[in-house]
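This part of the workshop introduces the protein records we will be handling. Getting from the letters to the tokens is the skill we practise here. The record below serves as our worked example for the rest of this section.

…
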Amino acid sequence: MQKSQTEHLYKILVIGDLGVGKTSIIKRYVHQNFSQHYRATIGVDFALKVLNWDSETVVRLQLWDIAGQERFGNMTRVYYREAIGAFIVFDVTRSTTFDAVSKWKDDLDSKLTLPNGKPVSVVLLANKCDQGIESTATNSGKLDQFCKEHGFVGWFETSAKENVNIDEAARCLVKHIIASENDLVESVESDVITPTLNSFRSNGNCSSCFKS
């Protein structure tokens, strides 16, 4: 008799300054398409991505595209509610968007925690890497240190246009969410999750995704 699959639904926030490419990243990840002419998101938009994580686990990601102009307003508290992970995005061609990353992270941490009081898992995306811009914000050593200091679980250079590292960043985030969820559930449920994590670690080659 075939064993039934376990399904997980995770609310994921995608936040960052206006114009950094949040909508483009989501469209590429969910629909595998790209356009130069997305209209600016107003308020919040949604998308759903279904992952067959392994033979026993299906993961549904509900991606919330939070408008950059929302900045750190009161409404973000409503948008953040019940999220279990996030991407914070900046544009490597505009240093001011990197300068804002720590403010987005601080705002997120102040409004959203897991039931055990710990912060949610957050991956930093250095978007538009196809532009070939070299800057402090794309220095891997400095980004490693920045992420450790600010509590990110990892970072990736991404390009929605060229489809660079978006799937990899999502797998990194889901891996950490599952690990965090293990801390919140009974040990009997961890028997299903542990092989998944070990399988990922044995096959992964991402130096930018920090281990739990």
About this structure: The chain has a mean pLDDT of 82. The radius of gyration is 17 Å.
